[in-house]
Write a structure and sequence with these properties.
Layout lengths: L1 H6 L1 H21 L11 H30 L1
Helix pairs in contact: 2-3
């Protein structure tokens, strides 16, 4: 279990920051009615977590390939 967190540390961190960013976006700019994702705080936080995790996962893969290339 510990090796899973070590291996995916950057992705998990990106998801956490994405969820926080999604909540902040909802709090300040989210719409009140008619929006599917932006109208409810937990949906926007979940969307932010997904986007942050995907972005961090791509970044993590790029970093690992870059390290392999330089070694």
């Amino acid at each position: 279990m510990d090796s899973f967190f070590q291996k995916h540390k950057l992705t998990i961190l990106g998801a956490v920051f994405g969820a926080i960013g999604g909540y902040i976006y909802w709090y300040f700019w989210g719409c009140l009615d008619g929006c599917t994702i932006k109208s409810v705080w937990w949906r926007m936080s979940l969307w932010g977590a997904l986007m942050g995790g995907l972005l961090a996962s791509m970044l993590s893969e790029y970093i690992s390939k870059s390290r392999e290339k330089n070694s």
